[in-house]
Specification:
binds adenosine-5'-triphosphate; 20 strands; 36% strand; 361 residues; alpha+beta; 2 domains; Rossmann fold; six-stranded mixed sheet; 8 helices; OB fold (Dihydrolipoamide Acetyltransferase, E2P)
């Protein structure tokens, strides 16, 4: 049985449907992420799981039991907010110990568990400090320690790495993964940062306008987005309008206006005459000099329009004959060369016949 289940959960604010008939199941020990743009309903779902808000329709079940009549304080759930919500007048140790004090635990136990929690988040030396004396990363750790001290079944993390700078954020991501693995607590993480979601999660629900667009493992979401929204929201992607010419013998033959024919991986569904989009990641697209021969059937000439040098890789934007702009990524692994091509260079972009996905209308 799933640890937590949402069954047809809907939440409206006036006429506005913030969460629209969402069903999903989260397994014990999972690192589960709700990913979506601002306003897609992620926080509203989290608040309903925590018990700060109630669904207008549908059910939320923990271990198969409906939580409707369980007030927030009685749910085995803790929320870590982006703002950390630390008490400024309490020391780190007192902030962390707060949930145990509220539960009137004996002082010996409070002390022991507080120390243990601070050790888990690698902050044992800061017990006596006050929140204003801490860095962003340290505050984040205190909030986590306070979240873990009551050993909740579910830890809800609302954009909780959002306030950290990029480097610290990456460090905390690695720590979060380690902590979650070590403690076996189920995490429900909310973010609009797709790279963070991909790096941290066992599974991700991609949200849009209150609905789940796709629920999958990170590599499935990235490699096999189900629709345009998911393809576009997760990572960088090229999309070309395409018409189905043939769908047989293990391949899909597509016609692209102004370019010609391409081959794509076969899939059940599309029929000759149908329309859709061919979606290809920039790292699936090879880019070579226009004069160079390349042994791939899907190949088109174009001109470099823009380039973005990232250090390890360069992303080239290439204008194709039909005016479409296509992104191709090339690793900068040749020593002594910053970029391979310049704006205006004639190039060929090419990709394998088994690369990409066809998203049919
Ligand atoms: P963000 O990433 O910006 O936090 P989100 O995906 O978490 O966004 P929610 O906070 O769940 O989005 O909000 C979803 C929608 O519901 C938003 O359009 C928001 O304005 C609306 N909403 C949320 N709470 C209320 C409320 N109490 N009253 C009215 N509208 C609300």
């Amino acid at each position: 049985m799933a640890l937590l289940e949402l069954r047809n959960v809907t939440r409206r604010f006036g006429d506005f449907v913030a969460v629209d008939n969402v069903s999903l199941a989260i397994e014990a020990g999972e690192f589960f992420t709700l990913l979506g743009p601002s306003g897609s309903g992620k926080t509203t779902i989290l608040r309903m799981i925590a018990g700060f808000d109630l669904p207008d329709a549908g059910q939320i079940l923990l271990d198969g039991r409906d939580l409707a009549d369980t007030p927030a304080e009685n749910r085995p759930v803790h929320t870590v907010f982006q703002s950390y919500a630390l008490f400024p007048h309490l020391s780190v140790a007192d902030n962390v110990a707060f949930p145990l004090r509220m539960a009137h635990r004996p002082s010996e136990e409070i002390q022991r568990r507080t120390q243990q929690a601070l050790q888990q988040v690698r902050l044992p030396g800061k017990a006596a400090a006050y929140p204003h004396q801490l860095s962003g990363g340290e505050k984040q750790r205190v909030a986590l320690a306070r979240g873990l001290i009551n050993r909740p079944r579910l830890l809800l993390l609302d954009e909780s790495l959002g306030a950290l700078d990029a480097k610290l954020r990456e460090e905390m991501q690695v720590e979060l993964i380690g902590l979650q693995r070590e403690l076996g607590i189920t995490f429900v993480f909310v973010t609009h940062a797709q790279d963070e979601a991909l790096a941290l999660s066992h599974r991700i629900a991609v949200m849009n306008r209150g609905r789940v667009e796709q629920l999958d493992e990170p590599d499935k979401l990235y490699g096999f987005p189900r629709n345009r929204f998911v393809a576009d929201f997760i990572g960088n992607i090229n999309m070309l309008d395409a018409q189905v010419l043939e769908n047989t013998h293990g391949h899909l033959q597509l016609g692209i206006d102004g370019l010609g024919e391409v081959l794509a991986p076969s899939m059940p569904g599309p029929m000759a005459g149908g329309h859709g989009l061919l979606a290809l990641r920039p790292e699936q697209v090879r880019i070579v000099a226009g004069s160079e021969d390349i042994d791939l059937k899907n190949r088109f000439s174009g001109q470099v329009r823009e380039l973005l040098y990232h250090g390890d890789v360069t992303i080239y934007t290439v204008a194709l004959a039909n005016g479409a702009l296509f992104k191709a990524l090339r690793p900068n692994s040749t020593p002594g060369r910053a970029t391979f091509f310049e704006v205006g260079d004639a190039v060929t972009v090419a990709w394998r016949h088994d690369a990409g996905v066809f998203l049919h209308d």
